Amino acid sequence: MERLDRFMARANAAYYATHDPFRDFTTAPEISQAFGEVLGAWAAVTWAAMGRPDPVVLAELGPGRGTLMTDARRAIRAVAPDLAAALSLHLVETSPRLRACQQGLAPATWHDEVATLPPGPMILLANEFLDALPIRQFVRRGEGWMERFVADGRFVEQPAALDADGPDGAVLERQEAAETCTGQIARHLATHGGAALFLDYGASESGLADTLQAIRGGDPADPLADPGAADLTAHVDFAGLGRVANAAGAGVHGPVPQGVFLSRLGLFQRTDRLARGRSPGQAGALIAAAQRLAEPMHMGRLFKAMALAHPDLPTPAGFDA
Ligand code: SAH
Hints:
By secondary structure, the protein is α/β, with parallel strands linked by helices. The chain is 39% helix and 26% strand. It contains 12 helices and 16 strands. Strands 2, 3, 4, 5, 10, 14, 15 and 16 form an 8-stranded mixed beta sheet that branches. Bound molecules: S-adenosyl-L-homocysteine. S-adenosyl-L-homocysteine (SAH) binds next to helix 1 and helix 2.
């Protein structure tokens, strides 16, 4: 019998060590190069607001294939060559297989965890990272709560001491790993200066829901069936992470829907530039990709952007109404 978060950590470590996740699911940077480019532009604007520190750490959590950072760095070289010269790249990645995919980003320093990022001013990017971190789940039974453990591919419930309200059968999730990570980053930013940008799927407000999901071979699967064969994720509770970051001394901005954030940062202007001079077919594909990222019926609403920043920094780009 294994607590759900320990099961999820073990299953995902095995999954990311043995699979090319991008055969199972597609992430925003893989949909359009404009995604990473506008995040690079965000980093450049943020760096200017920080007073152009040199040196500065540019960090990414869970870089996957390295596509986001490749596109972001191209944009940074174009719009802020001084930042390109001042930055040192730090990547937090546990999968040896994905680290190998990220070698094209060298020179860079790889880390197993956020705790070893070097001190100093920092700009941090993380797309679809927090959703992969392990969660705990509790189920309301009568007057109390039971915690979910996994045994032989099924949930087993054990009594838990939990002070929360909820109707019978309700599921309450705890994102302790994401809270630890967010708290560490918030403390870093409050101490050394800088800003972090998280993009992920989840709700703006905390609520009761079972959001654990598994994707195997591109299709939904049983999360408990075959640990290591499927990608396990849960929705991010942005409000909960915002409270943790705030308590750790950082300013919290958003969350705002991804479509709103990307549109404010010029996703469609950048896409028009990329489409210029291309064949009608290529131009149409670029515009369709941007729409997939930004439109509410696709990724524009379920996905959110949230920024943490040193409390003295002005509201980061894309977060002012
Ligand atoms: N950001 C990329 C990849 C998202 S997939 C993109 O948008 O395409 C999740 C990434 O986080 C993978 O690179 C995975 O190996 C990494 N990852 C998952 N759990 C992690 C953990 N606990 N510590 C560090 N990296 C982790």
